[in-house]
Amino acid sequence: MEQARAGEYDAFVAARWSVLFHLARLLTGGDRHRAEDLLQESLVKLWFVWPKVADEAPEAYVRKVLARSAARSARRRWWGERPVEELPETAAAGDLSATVAERSRLEAALARLTPRQRAAVVLRYYQDLPDRQVAEALGCPVGTARSHAARGVARLRRLLADVIEPVG
Amino acid sequence: MDHFERRLAGLLRQDPEPEPFEPRHREALHAGVRARRRARAARRAAGCVLAGAGLGLVLVLWPHGPTDDRPAAPPRPATSPAPTPTPTTTPAPGVSVSEPPSRSPDFTPSAPSVTPTDTDDSTPPEDTWSTSFPPTATK
């Protein structure tokens, strides 16, 4: 019984690791080590509820734990986020590493949001969740979740103005 | 969703370099599960110890002196020093009123009072309870 449970759990983790790690990385503003820690913690929690959620939506459970932990993480002492005055250099057009540089800029910009704004933006625009589900994942009212996302996007608009040019 | 939001969503969903699930990840995960299981067991054990200690403390502090083990006395009837007339009907002729007014068994008057048996007077005592009539309504 335990063996079967462990097998199913391992298969799920191995299959979804990459996607979940990407989500964790966005939620932590590109901090690789922190993202790995966050994902490990969430998957350990998943193990203890695996019999309950295995047949339903284990990924939704992990996503919720990840988002809540990331949104709360600012209160923890070991959170190593350091705001900087200047964002990393912009990649030149046509550069082969443009995509990587663009990604770095995005992560640096995300890191400058508050944890709750970042979580709301990532869930809304990366996971494409409706406001109600974003609120549920963050454990806050729908209006609050919408406000976090709107403020986060407004800030990103200023920070990424030179990366994402306005139309017209 | 405006142009910026669409572009933002596209940037967020850009294919990142794949992150394989390595053996070190698996080991770290299993170690985390074991550590959490141990922490849960320790918390449960600590809870049991605390609960046992609390129960023992309550039993030790529970009041159980010899005076407190006696059953509570039954409620005693209220007594008054003055004899209370019993609301009886007028005694029938030939029946002497020889009984004192009802009192509680442990009632001991401090001064002897005149009892109805001291005299041969068989007239009933002035008892407003037994001789009074209900008030008649006046027109």
From TrEMBL, chain A:
Superkingdom of this protein's organism: Bacteria
Q: Does the keyword Thylakoid apply?
A: no
**Pfam families attached here?**
Sigma70_r2, Sigma70_r4_2
- Which keywords label this protein? DNA-binding, Sigma factor, Transcription, Transcription regulation
Enumerate the SUPFAM superfamilies for this protein: Sigma2 domain of RNA polymerase sigma factors, Sigma3 and sigma4 domains of RNA polymerase sigma factors
Query: Keyword Manganese on this protein?
Result: no
- The record places domain RNA polymerase sigma factor 70 region 4 type at 105-156
Signal peptide positions (record) = none
RNA polymerase sigma-70 region domain residues are 20-79
Q: Which family does it belong to?
A: Belongs to the sigma-70 factor family. ECF subfamily.
Q: What is this protein called?
A: SigE family RNA polymerase sigma factor
Q: Per the UniProt entry, what species is this protein from, by scientific name? A: Streptomyces achromogenes
